[in-house]
Amino acid sequence: MSRILLVAATTGYQTRSFAEAARRHGIAVILATDRCHILEDPWRDNAIPVRFEYPRASADALADAIRDLTVDAVVAVADRPTLIAALTAEKLGIPWHPPDAVAICRDKYRMRERFEAAGLLVPRNFRVPLGSDPLAIARDAFYPCVLKPLGLSASRGVIRANDPHEFTAAFERTRRILSQPEILHLHEEWNEAIQIEQYIEGREFALEGLMTHGELRTLAIFDKPDPLDGPFFEETIYVTPSRESAAVQQAIVETARRAVAALGLRHGPVHAEMRVNAEGVWMLEVAARPIGGLCARALRFENGLTLEDLVVVHAIGRAPCTLTLAAPAAGVMMIPIPRAGVYHNVSGLEDALATKGIDDVVITAKQGQKLVPLPEGASYLGFIFASGPGPAAVETSLRDAHTRLDFEIFSTLDVIHS
């Protein structure tokens, strides 16, 4: 029996999906997560505890813990586990993305340097120490611009500024986000500076792919039909196939191929995001992992494979030669958090599920959960999945289903006085 090492965040939506996919294909799973190392197996899944904030020490401990087992492949779920996965794969001699490449994927400034050196379109950018005086920087900045934490994902802390006044407010807000206790320990370098970039006009896309010994295979190009103009950049709808021309799609694929080569990524899943305008394709970033959250469920193939299936079978060298999506078009909506508060309930779920084209609605928010919208937050209320005869029909289904959902969110004061 083949065996994979699954490195995942304890709270990640995807962990169970990938573990179940492995077991469907007769692949044994060793789970490594960032759970409490003091409690003894609190979830009774025999997971090995690791610390994402100490990747090298965790990789050493992980490699030592499994030294007597035969491990055929490594799979990482979400951003934070990727570096431990890469370091462990290197120690075990398993093909995966190199640790240096994965580290660059987690640092927006270094990523821009690699893209620029490869001749890709790169916005004007610089980084400034977190302790800088924003008033002094605002006078010399270019507008509009976007302020970004170096290492956070899912648009957390990303804010557009159109003038010095907005820049100063955005800088202070991003600095407060990076000062939160749960972020401070993630990575010292990421909390020392903020990335400043020229805002790029254009339409936004995502490319899902698999790399096999340095060769990129495109699985899907997603349109993001909602405008992402700021001041925050909350993603909502992904729809595939793209409605862009064949020439634009080819340019997206070719730019992504050059980008992953510039970063040094080699073997495993990649998720790339880009903007397209009259000047061409601008790479925003590339992650050494599959698409986040439960969004992978939007990709289902004719041979019955899900994206999770494909990632785990590819990891052990059994990926199919041909892949065609099961439906002509498919998509997902990440249900945004409309306001801060405490989640209580949702109504209209049956109506949403009955909407034409809807495959599933999954509410991931739990009763009593504190909800924090972007840019401070990093989660969604849930996910809506749809398929149909074309991308326009899928987009309509997702929007219609969303209008049928009514979320009950209490303000903090309501909870205190109840």
Largest sheet: 4 strands, parallel
Number of strands: 19
Q: And the CATH topology of the domain at 3-104?
A: Rossmann fold
Distance between the termini: 54 Å
Judging by the overall fold, what is the CATH architecture of the domain at 3-104?
Answer: 3-Layer(aba) Sandwich
Task: Tell me the number of helical segments per DSSP (H or I, 4 or more residues long).
Answer: 13
Strand content: 25-35%
Mean pLDDT: 92
**Poorly predicted runs:** 37-44
The Cα radius of gyration reads 21 Å
Overall outline: globular
**Main structural class:** alpha+beta
Overall CATH class of the domain at 3-104: Alpha Beta
Strand order of the largest sheet: 3-2-1-4
Helix content bin: 25-40%
Short note summarizing the structure:
It is built from 13 helices and 19 strands. It has 418 residues and is an alpha+beta fold.
Structure description:
30% of the residues lie in helices and 27% in strands. The chain has 418 residues and is α+β, with helices and mostly antiparallel strands. Among the domains are: 3-104, Rossmann fold (3-Layer(aba) Sandwich), CATH 3.40.50; 124-198, Dna Ligase, domain 1, CATH 3.30.1490; 327-418, 2-Layer Sandwich (D-amino Acid Aminotransferase, Chain A, domain 1). The strands form 5 sheets. It has a 4-stranded parallel sheet with strand order 3-2-1-4, with helices on both faces. The chain is globular.
Defining traits:
four-stranded antiparallel β-sheet, globular, 13 helices, alpha+beta, four-stranded parallel β-sheet, Rossmann fold, 418 residues, 19 strands
